[in-house]
Target: histidine kinase
Amino acid sequence: MSKHSIFLRIYAGLVILVVLVALFGYLLVQIINYQRAQEYRESLTDGISFVISEGVARQQTEQQRLDWISDASDLLELPIYYLDAQKVDLSRTEEKRIENQKAVVRYDAEQGIAYLVLGIRNDPKHYLYIKVDQIGERQMKALPVFILDYLVYYPGQEQEYLKKIQQHFSYHVGVEKISQLNLDSEQIGRLRSDQSVILWRDSATVRGTTISIVSPLPNSPTNVLVLGPVPMFNWMPVKLAAGITLLSMFLLCLGVYGLIVPMQRKLKQVNQALDVMKTGDMSQRVPVEGHDEMASLASSYNSMSDHIQRLIEAQRELMRAVSHELRTPVARIRFGMEMLADEDDHEYRLQQVEMIDKDIEALNTLIDEIMTYAKLEQGTPSLDFEKIALIDVLQQVATETEALKTQKIIHLNPLSSDVVVDAERRYLHRVVQNLVGNAVRYCDHQVSLSGGVNHQTKMAYVCVEDDGPGIPEEDRKRVFEAFARLDDSRTRASGGYGLGLSIVSRIAYWFGGTIEVDQSPELGGARFTMSWPVERFKKKKVQASKEKA
Model:
């Protein structure tokens, strides 16, 4: 049953949900970071690509361009190719970037190599193709050289053209005073030696680690060219982490809601059924879906409703039947008492007293039957299962029936005393006694009594057959209803009240078995067979020992 537990399924569902949401969050971060990394690479290369492209575009002849490209390749220590534009296949997005004087970056994640495609302003038939397999201090220190080479064509207008090219850079490019940069003496000394300085800055701000490149300016000992600060790529910035966390929590909430909704719906169905029950309507039933605790609750509610409805109907039927059954003996007793009051004949008075005594005995029998039936119908009776030799009960009933001198043949089929069953002796005796008594009333001459154990089905059984008229097939279910009579006149003549077989049916139910009626293949009359688990008591003991363990 644990595998069908709704709480286990909810816990398992939550674990699976957390794993799926975590996997989704991881994949989402990877997808977002892939795009962010691409945009980051493009933002870093756009500005310097523009400056390099402008440097090539200033060259007058193709040979001058090739020489300039060769010098730039040596400076960067990166291969730069001057390619025919028709040999480079670009997408629409990449063509748009070339038109906007931006770099096309193609990154090979497996080899860790980036390929840059740069357009040339006045040479649309060629592209610059740069293979970037490393970014080190040499490459970073070479960047200011290209910017200075661009500014050398505009003497005295450096600040103006720096502002002009700033739109191509995603980071700051400008001229600043050395005194404002908070440099140490070693760094200042390297600047005075015409060497560029790389500044690494760590901070607890959103920008995190940044890099700045400081390069000396020709003929300007107090000013320097500063590129940056350029923030390092952050794989998990605060905004991304917060967004993924909120999205994951939202998905978890949706998942939990999806897990709880079915249980809430089933609880609502039970509550609605209970509200209907409070109005006195017992016809409402709850659909049983699945095999979990909610299905068990719905099944228990339906069983309770069936039982309550059956009890109410049985009570009504019992009241109607009891009032009907009591009237006849009470009327006879009243009539006999009136006859006693007016009769002086002693023998006749004794005869009337004997008849009254029989009516009183009939009332006692009826009351006993009603009390037994009511006890079995209301709920689980107190059953004390024990090991019983089946032959003992059958022999006892056969002997008691023969003692009544019914003038009928009671045949007990041979049965070994080793056949032992688990049963409540008092109720098993009542079953056999009621079945034999019913058979004696309706048989012509003979009643057959047998019992045993079916080893294949592990079911014990008792069987009572007679040679009477039998029971029509369409009436075989109705004989187990309380106060049911198939032949009212014959039943009254035989002294029955219609409760005996109902009591047998309820005892079979509480034994965990069944009672069936069909035609006897040997005697031709009715055959009643009650079956119940032969090892029920043992199973309960084993189960109890397991629970204690």
